[in-house]
């Protein structure tokens, strides 16, 4: 554990009321402990509303398996995975209709987090919602299906805490294990935009806000074609 992460765990124990300081992970990447806590009710209500319109689904992988994570999305683009591969898509597969619009509280949090990390652009075109049940995981990957790599990724964790794997720009680079708790936000962009990352299998647990699950919300910019895909 680095000194910064050690300090974070210590400050969480000693002063649970005080918002802990941001933790730099790498150039262009920062963890904001608890940044989303004031938004939790709006975020959870938004997840409910979005999934009522476009239900969570365990997507098929190109290899024919199923992802352990359940996914849905809102905004102009959602994400699809099937035998044909991975891609962003404008329609919810379950309904064939456009993805639900991004709730205003989601967009506001994305803007706030990107600005706090020093970026002048916030990702607002796509919001992917991952739901992790016990043992669900996400293997080490880069977020590179976006045709736009200037804007950072903003990632929000809710519910049961998870272990985030934070690697480097090569798959074989060593990974750090970072605990992501309820309300934590990670932003990565600039030289860190293509950092390999993943989530280890979710431990069994219980959180008052989400029960035995973890919800992860990531914001992305998908295309530079701003004329046809305007941001909210
Ligand atoms: O669940 C997380 O914290 C990360 C999710 C992620 O990497 C993704 O959706 O691409
Ligand atoms: Fe990712």
Automatic annotation (TrEMBL):
Upper lineage: Bacteria, Pseudomonadati, Pseudomonadota, Alphaproteobacteria, Acetobacterales
Entry EC number(s): 1.14.11.33
Organism, as annotated: Acetobacter sacchari
Name listed for the protein in its UniProt record: DNA oxidative demethylase AlkB
UniProtKB keywords: Dioxygenase, Iron, Metal-binding, Oxidoreductase
TM segment ranges: none
Gene Ontology MF terms in the entry: broad specificity oxidative DNA demethylase activity
Region annotated Disordered, chain positions: 1-22
Record-annotated Fe2OG dioxygenase domain positions: 123-223
Cofactors, names only: Fe(2+)
